[in-house]
Amino acid sequence: MNMEFGNQRTARKREIRTRAPTACQTCRLRKTRCDNTRPTCSYCAVQGMECNYPETSPHQNQVGFDSGNPSNNEVLQRLNHIAGLLENIKSEGSTSSTRSLKEGFFELAMQNTSPIADSLPGSNPSSTSTASIDDRGADNDPRVLYMASSGENMLRWPIFNKVITEAEKHIRSFLLDSLDNQPRSMQAPRQVGIGSFVDEIPRLCRKYFLLCHRRNPIVDLDSLDRYAKEVTVQGLGWDGPSCQVLLACALASCTSSKFVPLADDMPANLDALQAPPMSDANLDLAETYFHAAKQRFGFLHTSPTDIQCFLLAGSYHRHAIRPLQAWFCYQQASCRLEVRLRSLCREQWTADDNYHNLESRLYWSCIQAEHEMQSELPLWSSGLESLGYSDPFPKFSRRSSSSYDEMDEDQDFAVKPGFELDGTEEEKGWKFYIGSICNRRTTNDIVSDMWCQGEKGWTKDIPGLLRKTMDAERVVTSWYQISVSGIQSQKDNPDLRFFFRGRYHMALERIYRPAFYLAMHFQGMPAFIRKNNAMWAEVFHLAQKAIDNCVTLIPSYWYQFRHEWIWNVVRASFACAVHILGAVLYQLEASRDPSTWQVRLPSNWTALVRLSIRTLKHWSSESTDLEVMASTLERMYQGTCRLANVRPDLHLL
């Protein structure tokens, strides 16, 4: 048996193994399967190429193509070209990511803003655009809008070199830089059964209608009425309508129903200026409703109700001073709206009458929300604005009498005595909504045009900058006059009048900022530029307007209720205080030379800056970036007081 086993192994060794067919030289070079058809394989036959097999080729020992064959040379040239392209892509890709991070935003933010550099005629400013992932075109570049609107960019102005640290010069964004210091997650609200609050839903939805909707008419009120009734009778579901009702209740709970306008006569002692009256907003209750709504986000899709939910969620996050969370919600709303609009397959997207102009409102609400956030965040938008929507603005559609007005009188759905909202009031709220969109788009277009070349561009064409500034001032002033024309007195919609006035002065602050920059750095300008007295007279006239405008704004920014724009307002207070400090630092130098241009400082400039610090500290417990801004402004204020030999009196805070 052993002998037989050994013979079997010997016989197996003697078996002749057949060799697999060898591919032709072309297919071997391409590293693809060859069908071994003789004399020419299928691939070579289709390409019209010479097909050589190793065993039949006259040059069996040669590796590669025949250099004398034109077809082979063509293949080699194509392969070399492809290899070169790959190498170029690899080399560019290895550096583009670095440039996109360092130069695309970091270097743009930290560039030298000295007016002396590159101010001579004929010199070209170094371009800050780089081949990176952020190069998406100059239109609506958030970095330009952010530089024009943020207070962080002002910290790099040379006028502040004596009161700012090197680390503070490199602050890109107080919010983005403080992300590592943010709590890892928002504190979960107290777990309370939402069922116990269902009876409050009709009242809170009516409060939302009276206070929130007229400032930002996102939802369709007839649908919200119906959803609120269904939830009251059938209970909460896990769908978009229930989510929308909960979000409306959350917004109503965190909104104050009392509004006491700021007195026109400012007290002489700003340190004694009182905060707004106590609000009746219930933030704990608002968080409970919002937490219940957030549990339903996973069930939302692309219906109008679902898109409204993300817009309402973004609005709530802005009330709660959670700007990044608001940005995420707005991006969700914009992306889902784009999917919806593209799925409709219409040659021109027009407002759908079946939704009471709802699609148009959703579109412009998304655009407005992104624009307002981009002025404070250097983040790219969703691209919804380039979609090609046809309606210039939403159209006001007077709705029928609310179903709330037809409810039984024995049901307590009243908010508080004194709330009345008729068609005229709703139309005024719609006017504020349209006016806000117009103001934001106009201001963004103006400042983007003025800042497209940055500070260096202003020194090269100061007369052109002055023309743009005065034209922009006329446009914004005309908008304000038209907007408040229907509001006759302070008692007539004081909150809307207050918001219109705030938007007007905020737009002026950004329009005057370039001229203010030139005035503050007058002494660093070349001699031939400083000789044009007529031009500089206009520059300093606008700079004085900028200072006076900030004097008006800082008390208004302190006197604020919780609303959707509170984070933007508090940040704007920081920028106004930086304006005041810049004017003080300039005047310290200018006072030594009576022949140079002077600015008129407010007599209470220390109290104004302290009031801005109070504003930041008042809201700093809700957002870490505001806390950092408050400490930065306080250090700048102390440094300026030391140079001016003035007591800071920080104990008054």
Automatic annotation (TrEMBL):
Which intervals of the chain are annotated as region Disordered?
114-140
UniProt cross-references to SUPFAM superfamilies, sorted A to Z:
Zn2/Cys6 DNA-binding domain
Concerning PANTHER family, the annotation shows: ZN(II)2CYS6 TRANSCRIPTION FACTOR (EUROFUNG), ZN(II)2CYS6 TRANSCRIPTION FACTOR (EUROFUNG)-RELATED-RELATED
Name of protein: Zn(2)-C6 fungal-type DNA-binding domain
What is the scientific name of the source organism? Penicillium roqueforti (strain FM164)
User: Key word Transcription regulation present in the record?
Assistant: yes
User: Which residue windows does the record flag with biased composition (Polar residues)?
Assistant: 114-132
- Pfam families the record matches: Zn_clus
InterPro entries named among the record's database cross-references? EcdB-like_regulator, Zn2-C6_fun-type_DNA-bd_sf, Zn2Cys6_DnaBD
| Keyword field | DNA-binding, Nucleus, Transcription, Transcription regulation
- Is Protease a UniProt keyword of this protein? no
Domain Zn(2)-C6 fungal-type spans what residues?
Answer: 23-53
Q: Which GO terms describe its molecular function?
A: DNA binding; DNA-binding transcription factor activity, RNA polymerase II-specific; zinc ion binding
Q: What is the lineage of its organism?
A: Eukaryota, Fungi, Dikarya, Ascomycota, Pezizomycotina
